[in-house]
Amino acid sequence: MARNRRKDKSMDDLLLRDDADGIATLTLNAPARLNALSDEMLTALQNQIDLLAQDSTTRVVILRGTGRAFCAGHDLKQMQAKRAEADGGAAALKTLFDRCAAMMMGLQALPQPVIAQVHGIATAAGCQLVATADLAVAARSTRFGVNGVNIGLFCSTPMVALSRTIGRKAAFEMLTTGEMIPAERAAELGLINHAVPDAELQSATRALADRIAGKLRAAVSIGKRAFYDQAELRLADAYAYTGEVMVQNIGLRDTDEGINAFLEKRAPDWAED
Hints:
The strands form 2 sheets. Strands 1-2-3-4-5-7-10 form a 7-stranded mixed β-sheet, with helices on both faces. It folds into 2 domains: 6-213, Alpha-Beta Complex (2-enoyl-CoA Hydratase, Chain A, domain 1), CATH 3.90.226; 217-263, Lyase 2-enoyl-coa Hydratase, Chain  A, domain 2 (Orthogonal Bundle), CATH 1.10.12. The longest helix is centred in the middle third of the chain and has 20 residues, at 90-109. α1 packs parallel to α3 (90-109), α4 runs parallel beside α5 and α9 packs antiparallel against α10 (235-250). By secondary structure, it is α/β, with parallel strands linked by helices. It is built from 11 helices and 10 strands. It is globular and about 65 Å long.
């Protein structure tokens, strides 16, 4: 795969982007605020999601954070400031949560698989971000929690992604106790794919990204959309829908080449490369 490195910066370096070998790495860069999902961070993330949605060269996205934490959730100081607005801030707060939900849904709707590279803590909406990512690799020292209940604020919006990723009883226990869980437990529950030694976090995440980036981009994109769409359907409807997806996938020129290459025991000559 041809090497192509690019660095983009947005929102005064609040979110960094580095592109290399078909992999875009987005780095939350507000370490003093534990990479909180502030208004500005949400804007920066949404801007990059919009760009990636139209990007035909990027095959995989890695999402990570700088400093001591992956992401500590919403910016509580900003949330409190909104409460001082008219009607107790209800309109401003609803707009905030709607924007966050749109960003989360946009991340999952991207044609590229998104891998969360997690360290330190991932709490509240930060844990939601991990649950929303298609895949996640975490350092073994990482802790996860939807702990808003500890300050009297039930993590209702993080609950949406969490309860769709792990079992209901485990999710409800996390939501109602506010207790943090270690990376090993997060892996057992399916919140993350792998818990790795801290020193190996970056290399393990990159290795996973490289493996996916080496596949046929169009097939992975078609498959990602189908993966989420079929989960919302009844069993018979899911099979009918995915059968149509298989036909669409097989109809691609590069898929035909891939099958022929396999049968002829040679490397495929994919046009998209």
